Amino acid sequence: MSLVTLPFYQRRHKHFDHSYRNIQTRYLMNEYAAKMRSSSRSSSQQSLTERAQASSQRASGQQLLSQGGTVCRLCAKRLSSEQEESEHEHKRRYESQVALYGEAKRERFLRELAGLEGSVHLARAQAREQLDRYAAQQAAEDALAWERRVFEERMRRAPEILVRLRSHTVWERMSVKLCFTVQGFPTPVVQWYKDGILISQAADPGKYRIESKYGVHTLEIHRANFDDTATYSAVATNVHGQASTNAAVVVKRFRGEEEPIHSMGLPIGLPLPSVVPYTHFDVQFLEKFGVTFRREGETVTLKCTLLVTPDLKRVQPRAEWYRDDVLLQESPWTQMFFGEGQAALSFSQLSKDDEGLYTLRILSRGGVSEHRAFLFVRDADPLVTGAPGAPMDVRCHDANRDYVIVTWKPPNTTSEGAVIGYFIDRCEVGTNNWVQCNDSPVKICKYPVTGLLEGRSYVFRVRAINSAGVSRPSRASEAVAALDPADLQRLQAIRLGEDKEIVISQDDLEGDVQVPGPPTNVHASEVSRTYVVLSWEPPAPRGKEPLTYFIEKSMVGSGSWQRVNAQTAVRSPRYAVFDLVEGKPYVFRVLSANKHGLSDPSEITPPIQAQDTTVTPSAPGRVLVSRDTKTSVVVEWDRPKHDEDLLGYYVDCCVVGSNVWEPCNHKPIGYNRFVVHGLTTGEQYMFRVKAVNAVGTSENSQESDAIKVQAALTVPSHPYGITLLNCDGRSMTLGWKEPRFSGGAPVLGYFLDKREAQHRNWHEVNAAPVTERLLTVEGLTEGASYEFKIAATNLVGIGQPSDPSELFKCEAWTAPEPGPTYDLTFCEVRDTSLVLLWKAPVYAGSSPVSGYFVDYREEGSEEWTPVSEAPTAHRYLKVCDLHQGQSYVFRVRAANASGVGKPSDPSEPVLLEARPGTKEVSAGVDEQGNIYLSFDCPEVTDASRFTWCKAYEEIADEDRFQVETVGDHSKLYLKSPEKGDLGTYSVSVSDTDGVSSSFVLDEAELDRLMALSHEIKNPTVPLKSELAYEVFEHGQVRFWLQAEQLSPDAGFRFVINDREVSDSPTHKIKCDKSTGIIEMVMDQFTVENEGTYTVQIHDGKAKNQSSLVLIGDAFKAVLDEAEFQRKEFLRKQGPHFAEYLHWDVTEECEVRLVCKVANTRKETVFRWLKDDALHEPESPPDLERGVCELLLPKLSKKDLGEYKATLKDDRGQDVSTLEIAGKVYEDMILAMSRVCGLSASPLKILCTPDGIRLQCFMKYFTEEMRVNWYHKDAKIASSEHMRAGGSEEMAWLQICEPTEKDKGKYTFEIADGTDNHQRSLDLSGQAFDDALAEFQQLKAAAFAEKNRGKVIGGLPDVVTIMEGKTLNLTCTVFGNPDPEVVWFKNDKDIELSEHFSVKVEQAKYVSMSIKGVTSEDSGKYSISVKNKYGGEKIDVTVSVYQHGETIPDVPPPQQATPKLIPASASGPAQ
Predict the structure, then answer these.
(1) Across-strand partners of 1372?
(2) In this predicted structure, what is the pLDDT of residue 19?
(3) Which of 372, 371, 374 is nearest to 285 (CA)?
(4) Confidence band (pLDDT; 50, 70, 90) for 509?
(5) 1153 by DSSP, 3-state: which?
(6) d(Cα 1183, Cα 1166) in Å, to the nearest integer?
(7) Where would I find the H helices in 1187-1325?
(8) What is residue 1318's three-state secondary structure?
(9) Per residue in 121-144, pLDDT tens?
(10) If DSSP states are collapsed to H, E and C, what string results for 574-617?
(11) How far apart are CA 517 and CA 854, in angstroms?
């Protein structure tokens, strides 16, 4: 068939011909025939089954007939007829079923034939539709190919290398990989060269491996050897040109059987173990020790937790610890532990000797597992400020009988003064007595110590010295014995027989040697500027006797020899000679001696000059710094040109801009590459290096370029979370999550590969990287299943692909519900909350998405819990009230009008814990008045990007917002803030550990920011104080204000009532711009000055004004104050009161009126007046002291009145008045109460006949004071039972007729208006009993006193009477019961007679009469009045004089004094 007769859809697709359609038809017919055969087979089987059932029934009937039982004919005939009817019925039914089956078979055939025809027509239509679509697709591909050719013509360019090759330094038998990235069109062809020779993989199979993928070209050299050291070049070529790049590969050799094992980029190789445990163990490190920082003298333990499989009790793998490349052993400073799943290395007292890279190796037959990290040991605090750090690594060399060389390494002096020398101390083992070996400091790090005692062991230490002082001592060296190592060499063993041997010395074989020979091979083994070490060989033969040596020196040209060790003989075959003149050559010779004599001198040495053979190294070369981790960088440098006998290098660092250098290592490192740890992420540093040898340290190298501490650039990690988001039967839409680590550079795109199920090969989906994390894969076969994997690319190259996704079946989605959401991410993770974000489903279903449901569950749980019952309309949700420290998993389900769709893939577990140092978004206004939101992220990297969102949607409106990011600081500016900008703003930083934050901009915050913005855009001169006034003592009024700051160009003006005033004699205006004070002084302030006062200030663009309104009462107050000050000024021109009359209360509770006077003279008169009456104080006023006082002791109401103090002289007068009344008097009483309350004594008990009295003594008391008495905290009201009162000295409470109810606590309280002063007494128990007993006793005594017999009155003590007169002595007596009255004369009873008569009337009037008194009647007469309660006796002296005699001169008579008579007394009173 010609091509012309073919249909159009077959012209390009010959495989779609008639044979294809016949095959489809035959397939359908064969399928129909198979169905027919199966149906006919089933019907025939059914008929056979029915026949078998009928025959079985007949057989059963015949069996019944054939049984041995007897059957009648009628029954047999009936049974036979029934069988015939049954067979006839069965035959009829069978024919009917056959007819029905034939009819059904024909209808089914017609129906299936119609269906077959429909299927054939449908297959033809689908085939034609597919052919048409394929033809259209081919036409589109032809057009696309033409456009691609045009595009390729435009895209053609020469090769361009994006990432160049990097040099590598490796150890033997390690692999090295060289990579570079090139772009160009057409794709360049890359060839690799070694030292200019093309590399052929076929020439050395397995040696090289060359790969090219996605523009990244790789050359891998397997198991490199020393011959692979070369310069490797890569040349990329296409039709437009070529480009090349090269790098050096250095392969280092190692000693013996060492195998280099690298870590942290340090060239340290560890030896392979010689003994490996036989058992195979699988070792996993669960917890590892990290980079550690400590200080000298501290303790530290490096520990790893291990999982060893199998776990055998008696057999364990072997653990080895290395520092740098040295295998460690247990020592007094280090202890090792291995077992129970742990390996630990403990340091009891750290020293800088312990600094280094520590490696833990676990050895078994299964291999070597190891972990390593650096231990940094800083200097301890110096004993003296500014002193250097301690030296380190003290070692002993070349030990002999009395001699040893001590070496050490110098400390790093970054901030301290340079070291000027060292002191070496020795200590004999077993003692603690350190002895300094050198008198003057040693300049270099090596010193020969002599004078040791043979056979004893010593340890050494070193101290550094600088201008500030001496350092701490170094760690002591290992013990060394003062022995000659040649002694052992002179011993030899001689075998006697088979099992015996003897040891003899070579001296025994030399025979008898008397005087030894001279030493040989005398030479200088070490020369320095301060000493020369001579070495020689002992004489041979030497003899049996011990040898000693004497050294002699001679300055060249002098001709004389001087013995160096004249005082002390040397036993070792070497000696350090000191005290040599610098720059002068010397020759030496040595003599040997024993007890027999002295040998001849040895041969003379060549001239030797004391000088330093080792010089200070030159500074290291260029210092290069590269990124390593977030807290470390790699520092590399070129070795110095003069690197003789180097001990290592010191590295220093400095934060850019600080100029403060800090040491990075505290022990010299022996290689020119070092990883500096402990740096601050995001900070910029510079580095410098200095070389160290025994002479000292070199000059500092040139400073490196500044570097920002960030992680090194690598390829990104693999994407993950591949999700099917939509499928239409021919294509699939996939989504995935970005890599967890971008490698330090932004991700440029993604490459997608696909693979059909059961296929092995992967096929590229996109040749160019896609930037979005959403891709629709076209050209898929409906019904087939596919899996996908994705790789991310950045500037460095293409990362590892993700794990293959699950199998996705390509079938169209027709469900009415929406598809799954995707890209679930978290931000703002805090202790109890987080914000969940997601993207809307690609497949929306039959209607738009109306909301989302968020579910969560704890990690490890299977039960999902909805966050809320109601859906959220946003594509973000803040979830609160979670548990801190718990991990959660989330999923999101979209919903529309048809229902809830499929849930998203579960998120990764997220730990609810706020990151340390979490920062939040802050709002502010810049200097130009622009409102911004700010966020800082110190963890930012070069690949990080700040993403600002509003309502968690990325902000893209550049007309309203502007984002500015500088380093780790980003700002979001609001260009035209308004109410529409209210909402939640968030920011997230990519390529970090989830750094994010949000800020809610509410109306109040926006108003605050806009007010601040307005203030900045419309600046004002800030004022410290607004316009105010001040009245001077002359009555002048000063108006003033103070600005925060005024520039020299600032201006101002004063405005009064809308009229500007200028400087004049009436308005004195001035401005002090240094202090910002502007003032105006008005001399005369009158009623015309009422109004508004304003000061207007302008300083550049800033303006401000302040006003003061003085109208009405405000103006009147100022005017009155000004008038008062004027009057005060005039008053003070004469004598006046500096302080007006006032009062206070003294400590003695006296009211004192005080005033201070001023401007007085001698003639000035001062007076006190009370109620305008002159009041003379006890002491005159002292005007010279300037203080006048008037004391009012024991203030009472009689002191009320108006008190005045007056001053007067010829210049004028002044009066001060104080009225003591009302409130003033009450305040005085309160002030006195305060003094009295503080001076109040404790309560005291006084018993009286009336009861018990409680007394409180104080300095002064008056009833006008506020006092209260309390009994059991209840206030006591005055009554007959309890009466309160007092006197000037005390206050009391009288308890009349006390009873048991009166027991308890009594409190006296006096109030001073501020405080209450209390005194308490507990009147109970024994105190009450004693007081009650005393009261009862006093009460009885008072009753007896009241009722006893007594003379009320009438008797004089002396009576004078003339002889012959009648004497009548009359008195009144009292007593209950009536007393007994007895008269006595001269203490004797008077016998009654006519001369003496006694009369008693009414039991109270008593009289005694003496008629016709004579001189015998003179004497003492007594009357005794007494009853049962007692009585009293009164004596009367009677004097009788004769007529005509002079009346005796006696004093006038007085009332006679009675004498008490006790109740118990009887008879005359004593």
Answers:
(1) 1353, 1405
(2) 41
(3) 371
(4) low
(5) strand
(6) 8
(7) 1222-1239
(8) strand
(9) 787 788 878 888 888 888 888 777
(10) EEEECCCCCCCEEEEEEEEEECCEECCCCCCCCCEECCCCCCCC
(11) 103
Whether 1432 contacts 1456, CB under 8 Å: no
* pLDDT-based confidence at residue 1256 (cuts at 50, 70, 90): very high
What are the CA-CA distances from residue 1198 to residues 1026, 1145, 1147, 1262 (Å)?
54, 17, 22, 13
Contact at 8 Å (CB) between 1039 and 1079?
yes
Q: How many CB atoms lie within 10 A of CB 186?
A: 13
Chain centroid offset of residue 1178 CA: 75
Give per-residue pLDDT as tens, 668-723.
998 889 999 999 888 899 999 999 998 888 899 999 999 988 888 888 899 999 99
Please give the pLDDT value at position 1079. Answer: 92
541 upstream amide cis, omega within 30 of 0: yes
Range in 55-59, 286-290, 1188-1192 the model is least confident about: 55-59
How would you classify the pairing of strands 785-793 and 808-809? antiparallel
What's the rounded Cα separation, in Å, for the pair 1037 and 1035? 6
Q: Which two tokens stand for residue 844?
A: 């929306």
Q: What are phi and psi of 490, to 5 degrees?
A: -85, -5
Average pLDDT over residues 1339-1357: 83
Look at residue 520 and give its three-state secondary structure.
Answer: strand
What distance in Å separates the CA atoms of residue 1450 and residue 1360, rounded to the nearest whole number? 8
CB 368 within 8 A of CB 329: no
Cβ contacts of residue 1268 below 8 Å, gap of 6+? 1275, 1276, 1308, 1309, 1311
568 pLDDT more than 90: no
Q: Quick one: tokens of 246?
A: 């090269």
Encode pLDDT of 337-388 as tens digits: 998 889 999 998 899 999 999 999 988 876 788 899 999 999 999 988 889 9
Name which of 569, 531, 537 is nearest 551 in CA terms: 569
What angle separates helix 73-155 from helix 18-66, to the nearest 10 degrees? 160
Secondary structure of 223-275 in HEC code, one letter for each residue:
CCCHHHCEEEEEEEEECCEEEEEEEEEEEECCCCCEEECCECCECCEEECCCC
DSSP 3-state of 869: coil
> Looking at the predicted structure, is the pLDDT value of residue 253 above 80?
no
Residues in the chain, overall count: 1470
Contact 359, 259 (CB under 8 A): no
Residues 677 and 291: beta-carbon distance below 8 Å = yes
Q: Is the pTM of this model over 0.70?
A: no
pLDDT tens, 1153-1175?
999 898 888 888 898 898 888 88
- Say how far apart CA 686 and CA 657 lie, in whole Å: 10
Q: Which residues make Cβ contacts (< 8 Å) with residue 1043, sequence separation at least 6?
A: 1021, 1022, 1023, 1024, 1050, 1076, 1078, 1097, 1099, 1104
Q: Which residues lie below 8 Å from residue 417, measured CB to CB, with a gap of 6+?
A: 386, 388, 466, 467, 468
- Measured distance CA(544)–CA(594) in Å, rounded: 10
CA distance 74 to 764: 94
